[in-house]
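Dear H.,

Thanks for agreeing to be a second pair of eyes. The structure we're designing against is below in token form, covering all 150 positions.
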């Protein structure tokens, strides 16, 4: 069986995060690499674009309380959207916010260090919302006039 390079596999939120997920910090836009020469010439910083969807990439750090290994308790999730997603309001004085990631996909990636080799997973989403927010085709989690983050 041949699997095309770059194949992404959809996964349900509850399957990936059975005890929920928590946003830690803010959502950051991803930018293309800029060399010292580019910086010296004042070249503009360009946003990174997802090669499959053509949408801009943003990164969120997600805490996973169901992770068995310490190294998996915090993961980075790339969010593909036309506009930067806006996280839900913080609950009390807690440093994290419960969220539901929408449009989740995973993609295997081979990693190596010396002789050791293993598979890691790139996790992507098309948007996020607060736990109490209704799931719908339109996301209130994006900046702008109610534009969809999908």
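And this is the sequence the design step returned. I haven't edited it by hand at all.
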């Amino acid at each position: 069986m041949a699997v095309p390079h770059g194949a992404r596999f959809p996964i349900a939120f509850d399957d990936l995060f059975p005890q929920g997920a928590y946003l830690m910090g803010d959502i950051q836009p991803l930018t293309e690499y800029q060399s010292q020469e580019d910086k010296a010439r004042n070249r503009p910083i360009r946003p990174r674009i997802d090669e499959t969807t053509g949408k801009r990439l943003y990164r969120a750090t997600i805490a996973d309380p169901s992770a068995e290994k310490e190294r998996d308790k915090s993961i980075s999730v790339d969010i593909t959207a036309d506009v930067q997603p806006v996280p839900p309001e913080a609950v009390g004085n807690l440093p994290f916010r419960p969220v539901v990631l929408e449009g989740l996909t995973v993609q295997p990636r081979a990693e190596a260090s010396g002789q050791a080799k293993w598979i890691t997973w790139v996790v992507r989403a098309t948007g996020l919302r607060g736990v109490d927010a209704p799931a719908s085709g339109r996301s209130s989690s994006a900046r702008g006039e109610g534009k969809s983050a999908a």
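Two observations from my side: Residues 9-130 form one domain. The first strand starts at residue 9 and ends at 10.

Warmly,
E.
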